[in-house]
Write a structure and sequence with these properties.
The structure is a single chain. The chain has eleven helices and eight strands. By secondary structure, the chain is of the alpha/beta class. The protein has a single domain, classed as Ureohydrolase domain (Arginase, Chain A). It has an eight-stranded parallel sheet with strand order 2-1-3-8-7-4-5-6, with helices on both faces. The two termini are about 15 Å apart. Its cofactor is Mn(2+). InterPro entries: Arginase, Ureohydrolase, Ureohydrolase_dom_sf, Ureohydrolase_Mn_BS. Pathway: Nitrogen metabolism; urea cycle; L-ornithine and urea from L-arginine: step 1/1.
């Protein structure tokens, strides 16, 4: 695991259906993310916030809301994440809504192509985010980034990162899914996305789920985690725009993060959809930072 970490704020809710995710980066800073990571022996640079177009809050056009602005934000994110990886640093993208996962992961995929590395993506989320403009009920692009990364989307988005598709669906493991739109469900099935939904976790447990999600990685694997805070049950994380009941408990989420940390392969991270406007006394940001700390090795005991 890289010991040099860069925090990149992306304060926008451009792809979301609710306002407020633009305040997410500052909420995580208020919850002391940087100093906490420094306490684990990491060199942390806070790069501040990217500056992109404001949210015009318009209805969809041809099935997309704010397409031009979403493209601009994702290009900014791509360039920032790619720069940190090229400098041998681990980028932590602080969102912002999850449409930005497109820019982040397309940069990671580009870096892996150039470095000759394999890529594994863990998508921790209540939603599959595999909609297209023809399937979406809302036009909100935060429901489309995985589809765009796999080549299903508008030319302006799928070409960010320089290769179409940016990733192979077989590189993705989705965990915690419990809300998929009807048309999206069919497309997820057709492309063969590996999804561990909440029913699977209920039946098999988080440990077995994570063992499968992390299987077959080796020393040449770059592990990227895209953590949508609505992955968590809203009882412990109310500060998100799209709360879906029945998510992982605090202990299940901790086990998930600790098993990722145990691999020693984490090389880039997104933390998305934190919405302080819907939170209670920054509770969700503090839970998110606590879980991120576990990604970087916090544990009750020294483990072999």
């Amino acid at each position: 695991m890289l010991k040099k970490v860069s925090l990149i704020g992306a304060p926008t809710d451009i792809g979301a259906g609710a306002r407020g995710a633009s305040m997410g980066p500052e909420a995580m800073r208020v919850a002391n993310l940087g100093p906490i990571l420094q306490g684990h022996g990491l060199e942390v640079l806070d790069r501040g916030n990217l500056i992109g177009p404001s949210n015009p809050w318009l209805p969809p056009t041809n099935g997309y809301r704010h397409l031009d602005e979403v493209v601009a934000w994702n290009q900014l994110v791509h360039d920032a994440v790619y720069t940190e990886l090229s400098d041998g640093r681990m980028p932590i993208l602080l969102g912002g809504d999850h449409c930005l996962g497109l820019g982040s992961i397309s940069a990671v995929a580009r870096h892996c192509r150039e470095a000759g590395k394999k890529l594994r993506i863990l998508w921790l989320d209540a939603h599959a985010d595999f909609n297209t403009n023809e399937l979406t009920p809302s036009g909100n692009i935060h429901g489309m980034p995985v589809a765009c990364l796999c080549g299903h989307g508008p030319k302006e988005l799928i070409e960010i990162g320089g290769q179409v598709p940016a990733i192979n669906p077989k590189w993705v493991r989705q965990i915690g899914i419990r809300s998929v739109d009807p048309g999206e469900k069919k497309l997820v099935h057709e492309v063969g996305l590996e999804v561990y939904d909440m029913r699977y976790i209920d039946e098999m447990g988080m440990r077995h789920t994570m063992e499968l999600a992390l299987a077959t990685m080796d020393v040449n694997t770059h592990l990227h985690v895209s953590f949508d805070v609505d992955f968590l049950d809203p009882d412990i994380a109310p500060g998100v725009g799209t709360t879906i009941p029945g998510g992982p408990t605090y202990r299940e989420a901790q086990l998930c993060m600790e098993m990722i940390a145990d691999t020693g392969r984490l090389a880039s991270l997104d933390v998305m959809e934190l919405n302080p406007a819907l939170d209670v006394r920054n509770k969700t940001a503090m839970v998110a930072v606590d879980l991120i700390e576990s990604l970087f090795g916090k544990s009750t005991l020294m483990r072999k």
